[in-house]
Amino acid sequence: MGSRLRPYMSDNGPLILDGGLATELEAQGANLQGDPLWSARLLHTTPKAIQDAHYRFLLSGADVITTATYQASITGFITHLDVSSECARELLMSGVQLAKESVKRFVSDSRPTGQRHPLVAGSVGPYGAFLHNGSEYTGSYAEEMSIELKVWHRPQIDCLTAAGADLIAFETIPSLKEAEALVELLREFPSSKAWLSFSCKDGRCISDGSPFTDAVQMAHRCTQLVAVGVNCCCPAVVEPLLESAGSLLSPDMSWVVYPNSGEDWDAERGWLTPVKKSASIPELSRTWMKRGAALIGGCCRIGPAHITELRQQLKGSCTSPASAV
């Protein structure tokens, strides 16, 4: 485990991340398919659904819950909700506040036996998530953008840090160019810490074709990053990716790993079942931990039941209250 992550740890084991927030919201009846705001729309329409979904992940054993802001932006809220700029800022900040309220409820319900005090990670998705065309899995937009990436991401990070997120989660980043912009931008918020997680095309390269080793080397130049890694990829490619860059992982840094279910996303057809089924996240998690992963969870199509199984595999129990939502 990297030394930068130790202040966030209550034991020697890895921190268990949550799963796919949108997956759980859809399981509870939310209609998110095709929505340009995705789960972020519910910050405006049904915030309690988000709060309850966070709580279910906490009950399942998550040590870290991630805000419903992956596809949120000031521009997106103004465009798709017809709200003011100030209202858009408040909606972004509410993502952190809802998560914090869920943590407060969980801690209160856990007493006197509870020992966990979960963290809130403020989710920052790539510019491709706003484009709503699947380009967060290619990074094709990075070289010909009409807006500077730091200008685009600055308001989101400002809102999440101002609202008190414990960490910032730069997620599903497809290109070195966007990752470099985010790392540079993070320096404008010197008291904030973050992890940087890439979308990857195979067991050696991130989505824009750059070697994962180059991404890791770039991340090591930022002392505010506590972890670097991968998310929303097939579980089977995680180990080869970590192995390819294993010699580059410094004592300060940890791996962050939260793949999806192994299904493939198609912008027109949705989630597609692969021909060859991948081993599950819980089955592979111990191998990732041995390679230095200290933040382990799931992404799309991973629900609370999977997180319960993951925690049992790595830590033996949930240690959560018996009450349900």
Q: Could you list some keywords that capture this structure?
A:
globular, 10 strands, two-stranded antiparallel sheet, alpha/beta
Which quaternary structure do these chains form? single chain
Spatial shape: globular
| Physical arrangement of strands within the biggest beta sheet | 1-10-7-6-5-4-3-2
Question: What is the residue-mean pLDDT, rounded to a whole number?
Answer: 92
The level of helicity is: 25-40%
Radius of gyration (CA) equals: 18 Å
DSSP strand tally: 10
Distance between the termini: 33 Å
Strand coverage percent: 5-15%
Can you give a write-up of this model?
The chain has 325 residues and is of the alpha/beta class. The chain is built from twelve helices and ten strands. It has helices at residues 21-27, 42-45, 47-60, 74-81, 85-110, 127-131, 149-162, 176-186, 212-219, 238-244, 281-290, 304-314, and strands spanning 15-16, 64-66, 119-124, 167-173, 194-198, 225-231, 254-258, 264-266, 270-272, 293-296. An eight-stranded parallel sheet has the order 1-10-7-6-5-4-3-2. The chain has a two-stranded antiparallel sheet with strand order 8-9. Helix 7 (149-162) packs across helix 8 and helix 11 crosses helix 12 (304-314).
